[in-house]
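Internal ticket #5521
Category: modeling
Description: The requester needs a full-assembly model to guide mutagenesis choices. All entity lines are attached below as received. Residue total reported by intake: 938.
Assigned to: D.W.
Attached entities:
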Amino acid sequence: MADPFRLHVNGRSHDVADSWIGESLLYVLRERLGLLGAKGACEQGECGSCTVLVDGELVCSCLVLAASAGGRPIVTIEGLAEPGSPTDLQRAFVDAGAVQCGFCTPGLIVAAHALLERRPDPTVTEIREELSGNICRCTGYGRIIDAVQRVAAQRATAGIDP
Amino acid sequence: MTLVERPTDRRAGTGRIGDSPARPDGIPKAQGLFAFSSDLPIGGAAWGATLRSPHPYARVRSIDTAPARDVPGVAAVITAEDVPGQPTYGLIAADQPVFAFDHVRYVGQPVAAVAADHPETCRRALAAIRVDYEVLEPLLDPQAATDPATPPIHPDGNVLRHQRIVAGDVDATGDVVVEGTYELGMQDQAFLGLEASVAIPDDDGRGVELHIATQWLHEDRKQIAACLGLVPESIRLVLGGVGGAFGAREDISLQVHTCLLALRLGRPVRMAYDRAESFLGHVHRHPAKIWMRHHATADGELVKIEARFLLDGGAYASTSSAVLLNAITHTQGPYRCPNAVVEGWAVRTNHLPCGAMRGFGVVQACFAHEGQMDLLAAACGLDPVEIRLRNAMISGDRLITGQVVENVAPVARCIRETAALPLPLTPIGVSEDDADDPMRLPGGAGLTANVRDVRRGIGWGVAIKNLMYSEGFDDFSTARCRLAGGVASLKFATAEVGQGFVTIAQQIARTVLGVETVVLDPIDTSIGSAGSTSASRQTWMSGGAVDAACRAVRERLFEHLGRLHGVDPLRLEIDGTDVVDSLGDLRVAVADATADTELDETVEFHHRPTEELDADGQGNCHTAFAFVAHRAVVDVDPELGLVKVVQVATAQDVGRALNPLAVVGQIEGGISQGLGLAVMEEIIQVDGVVRNASFTDYLLPTFLDMPDVVATLVEEPDPQAPLGAKGAGEPPCISVTPAIVAAIRDALAQFDAEHGRTGRPPLCRVPVRPSDIALR
């Protein structure tokens, strides 16, 4: 068993006790904290379905030991917006047809959210490169690129500082 | 993005047929709130896990589970002895053991299962089970499996199906004869949402509720019930959120195991595969070896096709017999051909079992027939487009099975519209914004290719694909529609796997009933079967069922209003959200007309009957057909063997696009999977052992691998289809693979001509590897 530790997720603190030392951040988020938005699909950091932000950095939560993330701010897909009040990016994914089965979607939206924070107006090549750590098996990516471009354009038009 | 589309294609509109409204599960999915079958935590549930065979072929002498039972936290260990009903299951033939009871026949075959308090406890318990195997010599050569002298590895024998097609004059010959042998590796569906389930036993232990990601709830229920020794009615299946399917969820994986453990424990059990186990736990696309010889006139008109197919079905039957049927009956592709001699085998080996994957046998046939069409074009001195146009099938043509194609068959139009789509504007290694971009070169971030060495090739692929099930199977669909207070409710058991049936079901109801709000009831087995979400069939079949149920309700509504207002119901019609009298002044809002009444109709929708093939492969075995053309542009570094697919153009026969944005999603997604088969994806088995059961080693197309797609929809509503709409799921992934390989061949031919090279061996195997291009 691991020593008890505390995770700061989406602005809330959670004490984690009685966990096995080998549990990944993904496992603890899902199984112990009930935050099911991050998905496990490869357990190797290849597919990005489990993407969350730790200390503002994109990480594959399947590759992070939960106990090592103690005390650091963690943001998951659930932390981007309240239920039923999606962000512009979440809305754009749906409207652009970027969501089919949706299993990759939470990880992709966290990654695309971080991309637009860094680069408000990415080129297509930048979108492809920056999101290439996230695999989608349904869409062939075209509508996802469209969704990200739509949001970049909308934010530029609206003069919103992203 | 250069998608060719009409200005209305992305418009949500009023959410009726032809609009592209947002999918009803879209926002929950985008917010991480949609519950997939892996996201169903049930208080007090135990974890289940499966012990799998390490050997491709072995006799199971004994299994000692006692050490596993002694692991603290373990609640149950079960083996074949604990299966109360039928010991085997299977979609067509029940030949696959729930747990191995005499032999194991592939690496990964389930041998036992455990339930425990934590996944890590399960892992330790599995490691503690002692199985005594007598290792046997595996059968790994599919050709040897066709030989009657080869000892059978299963009581049902090694030949899963052998079928001939003999059409017309078998002695006919052509002025021009070309032949080739084509091979395809084993492809994985690689859905993102891994196999996961939750089983909740009834209090009396005589039934169970299973939440499962599947393609066909009722078929699962039938097979589970037989293995549990229960009647199907005592088992309730609820569709857990499905993270993609592509054929891999048509067979049983963890369904029976989860139910057995839950019934044994008397409490809920969850099972979930990891990626490595998923590669072993579901069926795959059949590896195939196909020989074809095409005879044609000097003008390039097909005279006769001879062909032999050999499909490796792996250890158990699954749908191999149907996959073989599809492969051999699509030998000719979308081309007229009066004469044919075709022979096909699907055989059993000690490889992973193979079954359904998007394209289902036609992917294999198309790779071969399109390679042949290019050989024929070269032999006749014709352009690849011209040879295809000269032979393009039209509605009314007779297939080599004797079946007449009665659907609209716009093959030539698909080819011409694809040819008219713009070629890439950017030169090799240059991005859309005109900058030199090494990421655009073959090899991408590896920065290995030099732009001077790269050649750009163009290749073509055209396909015909059957829709719905074949050979006499009545794969009907059931839907219920209720209308009250201006709100429609729809109930069906159609598996939503990501394709968006839930969206078009709402569109159909809005269109037929003039309502805005359409509630979707839970997808489960409390209504009749919808058949499988496969074979490009749900738009036609469940779309047809929803349409029919809504029409039945509308008829009742018109009768009710006709009586109330003294108007002939036949004069009534829907206008927006009102019912109007087409010959009078009556106008009543649907909401008002149904304020105090509920109309409720359930309808079964059946397609027209089909027949089995006879011994000569003759018969009306298929229900309907769709067509598609692909043109690929690929940059190739011939010396490094690296490729970059730059663009795929396509025109697809969709009948009528009920939701154009959803169709585009199918087109782009299918192209991605066809690209994967062309140049990336293959399950590698060495001596029957899978060597790349992970996303690190099994390569899937990423954002950087996916080309620009230029697509146009060919809309000629099909009179046979209930809504004029053909299934759009499978065609996109079929002819793109040969198109990409043809483009690579074209690039290599340019390079060889420039360097005076001859004698390059033909490129006839997918996925194309660097070593197939370089050093040859």
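Resolution: model delivered.
Comment from assignee: Chain B has a mean pLDDT of 96.
Ticket closed.
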